[in-house]
Automatic annotation (TrEMBL), chain A:
Signal peptide: none
Name of the featured protein: Phosphatidylinositol glycan anchor biosynthesis, class Q
GO cellular component: endoplasmic reticulum; membrane
InterPro entries linked: PigQ/GPI1
Keywords: Membrane, Transmembrane, Transmembrane helix
Top-level lineage group: Eukaryota
Chain coiled-coil ranges: none
From TrEMBL, chain B:
Gene Ontology BP annotations: GPI anchor biosynthetic process
Name of the featured protein: Phosphatidylinositol glycan anchor biosynthesis, class C
Listed transmembrane segments: 49-73, 85-104, 147-165, 195-212, 224-243, 249-268
GO CC annotations, alphabetized: glycosylphosphatidylinositol-N-acetylglucosaminyltransferase (GPI-GnT) complex
Annotated coiled-coil segments of the chain: none
UniProt keyword annotation of NADP present: no
Length: 593, 293
């Protein structure tokens, strides 16, 4: 069995003393955490260790002795050998280093007094692995295991090493300038690292968090009014993406601004990710506003859209509004005129064509009059709505999506009319086709059976079948046109939602951490041979392998209410063919409906 | 394996034709009684020529019905016939036919009341009259050739799927095909009244006439051939007034159908070679209606 000793790099030049660390259970290895220097009193050492043990839940013990001979300190070796009797161990390590030589020598004494020689040919070998203590302490090994799962899953040796170093943080609080009875050597022994700004922020964040949590509870109280829980209001608010987005953000704020400190690594990362992405969101939103409202860009855009420039109106929003609306309505009118003719030489039934065309034109006329009625109020509302970009880019995009949905509401209505008519027609045709052949649908057995119809049923059935069949091209064409328009709208909304979702779920903090401090997110380690001399054990340098970027994204992605396609392509095509109404994007909600 | 040719056939134990008992014979052994139960042509009927000719009258008259209908349509399209006159004639014919039907079926138990019949008639008339403006413009944008082709296919389907064995409740597919064809043709007529008239004629010719004919065959056997011949003559005559070559073709076809085909049928009977045996499906010969009451 190979004995692995993990030795911190900072202790390479430490003075002689006792090695303090932990034996890894189940694996033949030991982690050295610090070196306690002379002079020390063994009783105090034991007391200190037991205090730390209760504080950190890590079973710290004295592993052995470390000797780095300096001038005036000869005779230490024998002293060190006697120490093994004071601190009884199963295995006592004796590491020593000579000035001028790179490698250490290591002797392991077992409790029955037997000496293990490293040169012995056989199974017993010793490997010394050097590690950077600060990096290993701060790093988190992936895949992350929850603390509560310790008993279920067998932790790997590396996981245990990382865990030991991370949990022994109170050990590193004593530095070498302390006046206490013990003097330790570890990575922080030159003095504790702290920055004043970080400390001030930490102190200030607690009252700020409490205040924000109070604001949030106020918001929740407002939202819990009975009047807002009526069915129509709930329905509308579930359809408007702005409401969905704001609800989602409220949930996030609750997570971020809670005054409790994050217990596990994942919670901390989640909080940090949400906070950073929120800040970036607001920054992007402000950027968008500054770009939109500068240099009259909007009116320039409106001018290119409006066929006839309206010079009397100078307000940017009224330009945008009127031009878009009149353009959309005009396009629709032209389309309907084309349909009422003989589009593409198709065999349209003239009478039905005229009826349908006039019906839809009348709808457009109604819609335009409604818009004109509303237009004086819309200007102001739009101007203030445009300012909502300061709440974040996602908000601006959600509002854009909602505005587009409202503007094209009449297209949605037309689609519903066309689809219902077509669906009815297809249903009637299929049923009458069965009557034509003398069969009917057996609901009980879910199959087609033969049936003897009466004379009048046959007569009327055939008449209706003929009528429906010859009117099919007309209805199908209207349905096709409006479905295509609706699909374009759905696609556009889907693109907006996808980008909102992308901004919401991107773990910017984790990515930043991966780029700037790659050792904090560790996937594994790699070893480099430092020194391989005969007579000394093998020295390896352990370096942290950072997590791959794709794994970072996968692991730390914030879960969102992402929209994903509800139906597969085949099911969608079938629905389109039959005339069922399609709602292709389904939203994943946290609560099950 | 032939009979008695299998090896190891001891004469001590006779072979039984069962598979559930282990016998000293191999499984595919058969004895000399093999195929004893084979019967040939036990259900072959001996057709008599003139009886078959009588029966083919039904097919001939159905073809002629189609010809009559086409004649009517053609006359109405060219404007030779006034729709109101045709309508009155149709109504008269319908009442006449109904009366005849009632007289012939006097002893039978009526399965539909007079009221139900009146209801049906009202529904027909109302529906057809209501939908005739819609039906008139139905095939406006379809080209004439397509309309003619569709009607021809549908009438052919009607003739092919007609239930010649039991024409009294008209078969669904045949009636529907005929009505579809008549709607296609009727939509080519110049006015809504024409369309209405055409559809009423179609109903009369394709739906109601077979019922009356069947009743006549059942009750007054002697009248059936005369009715069939009358209809054939009307068909040929009507077609002849429009298209003399067509009349010639039709009469030729009818003669072939009525005279030549039965000859072929009777002549080819001697080539029949049906085998029957215990492997046939069981057929219930008795009339089981006595168990139902």
């Amino acid at each position: 069995m190979v004995l692995k000793i993990f030795f911190p790099q900072c202790c390479n030049t430490a003075d002689s003393g006792l090695l303090v660390g932990r034996w890894i259970p189940g694996h033949n290895s030991a982690v050295v955490l610090a070196v306690i220097h002379y002079p020390f009193i063994p009783g105090q050492v034991k007391k200190y260790l037991s205090e730390l043990q209760s504080q950190t839940q890590v079973d710290l013990t004295v592993l052995g002795s470390w000797s780095m001979p300096k001038e005036g300190q000869e005779g230490m070796d024998s002293f060190l050998k006697d120490l093994s009797t004071i601190f009884p161990q199963e295995c006592w390590l004796q590491l020593s280093r000579e000035i001028g030589k790179r490698g250490f020598t290591c002797q392991v004494v077992q409790n029955n007094g037997r000496l293990l020689q490293e040169q012995k040919n056989g199974d017993d070998k010793i490997v010394l692995i050097h590690y950077d203590q600060r990096k290993v302490m701060l790093s988190q090994l992936h895949p992350v295991q929850d603390v509560g799962q310790k008993s279920d899953v067998e932790a790997s040796e590396l996981g245990l090493v990382f865990q030991t170093v991370a949990q022994s943080q109170p050990l590193f609080l004593l530095d070498k300038y302390d006046d206490g009875p013990l003097k330790l050597s570890h990575w922080q022994s030159e003095g504790r690292e702290a920055s004043i700004i970080a400390e001030l922020l930490k102190q200030a964040s607690v009252p700020v968090c409490i205040f924000l949590t109070w604001l949030l509870s106020l918001w929740h109280w407002l939202c819990s009014f009975r009047i807002l829980h009526l069915r129509p209001v709930l329905f509308i608010s579930s359809k408007l993406s702005t409401c969905v987005q704001s609800g989602y953000r409220a949930v996030h704020f609750k997570t971020v601004f809670s005054p409790k400190k994050a217990a596990t690594h994942m919670e901390f990362m989640r909080k940090a990710n949400i906070f950073v992405s929120f800040l970036v969101d607001i920054a992007l939103g402000l950027l968008l506003i500054s770009w939109l409202y500068r240099e009259n860009r909007i009116s320039k855009l409106a001018d290119t859209l409006v066929p006839v420039a309206d010079v009397s109106m100078t307000h940017i929003t009224s330009h945008l509004w009127k031009s878009l609306e009149s353009r959309v309505a005009k396009e629709l009118q032209e389309l309907l005129e084309w349909l009422m003719g003989a589009p593409a030489g198709l065999k349209m039934n003239r009478a039905l064509d005229q009826v349908l065309g006039r019906f839809f034109l009348y709808h457009i006329h109604l819609w335009i009059s409604y818009i004109h009625l509303m237009s004086p109020f819309i200007e102001r509302i739009l101007w203030y709505v445009g300012l909502s970009g300061c709440l974040g880019l996602t908000f601006a995009l959600s509002i854009l999506s909602d505005i587009v949905a409202l503007l094209t509401f009449h297209i949605y209505c037309f689609y519903v009319y066309g689809a219902r008519l077509y669906c009815l027609k297809i249903y009637g045709l299929s049923s009458l086709w069965r009557l034509f052949r003398g069969k009917k649908w057996n609901v009980l057995r879910q199959r087609v059976d033969s049936c003897s119809y009466d004379l009048d049923q046959l007569f009327i059935g055939t008449l209706l079948f003929t009528i429906l069949l010859f009117l099919l091209p007309t209805t199908a064409l209207y349905y096709l046109v409006f479905t295509l328009l609706r699909l374009v709208m759905v696609l556009f909304q889907g693109v907006i939602h996808l980008s909102v979702d992308f901004i919401n779920s991107l773990p910017l903090f984790a990515i930043g951490l991966r780029i700037c401090r790659p050792y904090r997110l560790a996937e594994g380690v790699k070893f480099k041979v430092l020194c391989q001399e005969p007579g000394t054990p093998l020295h390896l340098m352990m370096e942290i392998n950072p997590l791959k970027c794709s794994s970072v994204l996968q692991c730390y992605r914030t879960p969102t209410y992402s929209c994903y396609p509800k139906d597969s392509w085949a099911a969608l095509c079938k629905k389109l063919f039959v005339g069922e109404l399609i709602y292709p994007w389904k939203q994943k909600t946290a609560k099950t409906d | 394996m032939g009979a008695d040719s299998g090896p190891g056939a001891p004469a001590a134990v006779p072979w039984r034709k069962v598979l559930y008992e282990r016998q000293p014979f191999p499984d595919n052994y058969v004895d000399r009684r093999f195929l004893e139960e084979l019967r040939r042509n036990i259900r072959v009927r001996q057709y008599r020529y003139w009886a078959v000719v009588r029966e083919t009258g039904l097919i001939a008259q159905q073809v002629s019905c189609v010809a009559v209908f086409l004649t009517l349509w053609s006359c109405m399209e060219q404007g030779d016939l006034v729709p109101s006159a045709v309508l009155w004639v149709c109504l008269g014919c319908a009442l006449l036919g109904y009366g005849l039907y009632e007289i012939l079926g006097g002893a039978c138990v009526r399965e539909r009341t007079r009221l139900a019949d009146l209801q049906s008639a009202t529904i027909f008339l109302a529906f057809t009259f209501g939908f005739s403006p819609v039906l008139k413009t139905l095939t406006e944008s379809v080209s004439t050739d397509t309309v003619y082709a569709m009607s021809a296919v549908m009438l052919l389907a009607h003739l092919v799927s007609f239930p010649y064995a039991q024409p009294s409740p008209p078969g669904s597919l045949s009636l529907n095909a005929a009505l579809f064809a008549s709607v296609c043709l009727a939509s080519r007529l110049p006015g809504a009244l024409h369309t209405f008239t055409m559809l009423s004629c179609a109903l009369l010719v394709f739906a109601l006439w077979p019922c009356l004919l069947h009743r006549m065959r059942e009750k007054a056997e002697w009248s059936f051939p005369w009715a069939a011949v009358l209809v054939c003559l009307a068909g040929v005559g009507g077609l002849g007034s429009l298209w003399p070559e067509g009349a010639l073709l039709l009469s030729l076809a009818l003669l072939t159908l009525t005279l030549l085909c039965p000859l072929l049928l009777v002549h080819l009977q001697r080539h029949k070679d049906n085998i029957h045996g215990p492997w046939d499906e069981a057929e219930i010969r008795e009339d089981l209606s006595r168990f139902l009451n």
